[in-house]
Amino acid sequence: MKPPARRRSTSPPPPAARRLPRRWSPALLTKVSAATSSRTPRRSWASTTGRRRPRAHSPPSREPPLADNLSSLAIIIVTYNSTTEIGPCLDSLVGHTDPFPTSITVVDNASSDGTAALVRARWPSVHVIASPTNVGFSRANNLGIRATGGDYVLLMNPDTVAPPGAIQTLVRGLAAHPDAAIAGARLLSERGFPELSWGDPIGPWNELKRKAFSMLYYRKIRRIVRKVDKLSRQAREVAWVSGACMVIRRPDLEAVGLLDERYFMYTEDVDLCVAMTKRGRTVLYVAAAEVLHHRGRSAARNPATERLYRQSQVAYYEKHLPRWAGLLRAYLKLTGKSAADG
Questions:
Q1: Exposure string (b/e) for 280-300, b if CB count within 10 Å is 16 or more?
Q2: Low-confidence winner among 48-52, 85-89, 164-168, 301-305 (lowest mean pLDDT)
Q3: Distance CA 213, CA 229 (A)
Q4: Could you say which of 15, 152, 176, 182 is the most buried, measured as most Cβ atoms within 10 Å of its Cβ?
């Protein structure tokens, strides 16, 4: 079985509290957009777990002006058998990114359901790159990045929907901070709950804390749900943001050699953020830019995607935390979660 070639979240679905419609209506999109335009970020904290640490960074409450050197925006979307998801995503983008001169490129990873043909037929302004083979998320994004221009590059999943103004808010948030290389959006589930789409540096202790915190959140522990909602509304510097919707300055992207293609799927977004911080750049979480994310629920239970996640996890440790890589391999083998092929 071919593994999916676009990035999916491995987190369980959010708590089933107030259930929203699976398809977001225009009225709801407008409501979400209006809610994003008037928030005033306050002093925030660096972590969702453990001791709270104040950050000095606090983006301005009013909408910042565009950067003088912003000439265009390139949007890259990697698809794999995405005919049921790509429509709402492209409908929310095509013709809705003013004032930016924008190009939209779909890189299709050898889909068998006609995704590439569908995009060509329904959205003629969208450039389609049809890969003859499934080359993975990182490499497919790199194909799109190399084929486009633009001072800013926006990576999006096909299962995301951008309400009016969300993309502009995200790009402006990055443009207003010259020391930042990457900015990520506030991702909302189809039920309206915020995803844990940002975090502290990956490491054994932080991963354990995050896993425990996530379990409490997705089990609807009320105090934790309230805490996540509060944290998710606070713009700040973070260690990493989700690649489901992130905007990057092209000069920074080219300086680190684009996405690391050793990651077929998963962890490539964290790796990219680490590469930026090692160059002295920062990563922003832009809470006012709210994007809807219809996550693939089956991916977390799919043995193929679980194996891909573990492979990427081991690759990350070998690259950034080599002294812990052997212990991680032993743990995965002991628990029957080996990252070995097959």
A1: ebbbbbbbbbbbbbbbbeebb
A2: 48-52
A3: 13
A4: 182
- Assigned domain for 160 exists: yes
Maximum pairwise Cα distance, the chain: 54
Domain residues for the domain of 324 are: 300-342
Same domain, 123 and 260: yes
Q: Are residues 283 and 304 in the same domain?
A: no
Strand partners, 236: 285
Host H or E run for residue 213: helix 204-218
Tokens (6 digits) for 284: 């922003």
Rg (CA), the chain: 19
| pLDDT tens readout for residues 31-47 | 444 444 444 333 333 33
CA nearest 200: which of 342, 318, 45, 329? 45
pTM of full prediction above 0.70: yes
pLDDT tens figures, 163-173: 999 999 999 99
SS3 call for 214:
helix
How many other C-beta atoms can be found within 10 angstroms of the C-beta atom of residue 91? 14
